[in-house]
Amino acid sequence: MHRMPLAFYLISIIALGYSRPTEEDDFVSCIDESSSSSDVSEADALKKFLYCFYKKTDVITGDGHIKIDNFLEKLPENMHSEKVREVLNKCNSLKTASTPEQTVLNIFTCIHAV
Question: From what superkingdom does this record's organism come (predicted)?
Fold first, then answer.
């Protein structure tokens, strides 16, 4: 499996906020929520944004793990392979981090590394 296609589609899930009216509102509200405090680092703001947006688009659970079937629904049909599901399952099995935001970041870092 190539890294670029899966990484591209992970990024495109974020971009869905620009292509679907209801998710555009979620996208904007998550930007506002993640950057509302001036003492938040860029890394923390990114984690908060990812958690917020993925949670609002229903592709993760409250603890930051992937809802695999929901996640796959966001991907094009040609990405619904057993290999993609294996990668998602492998990375989704990572131990829950100290925060759901960190768990999301750890899982998507794992996916990108595969």
Answer: Eukaryota
Domains and CATH numbers, the chain: 3-113 (1.10.238.20)
Q: Which amino acid is at 41?
A: S
pLDDT digits (tens, 9 = 90+) for 42-95: 778 888 888 888 888 889 999 999 999 988 887 777 778 898 899 999 999 999
Question: Three-state secondary structure along the chain?
Answer: CCHHHHHHHHHHHHHHHHHCHHHHHHHHHHHHHHCCCCCCCHHHHHHHHHHHHHHHCCCECCCCCECHHHHHHHCCHHHCCHHHHHHHHHHHCCCCCCCHHHHHHHHHHHHHHC
Other CB atoms within 10 Å distance of the CB of residue 8 = 12
Distance CA 27, CA 5 (A): 22
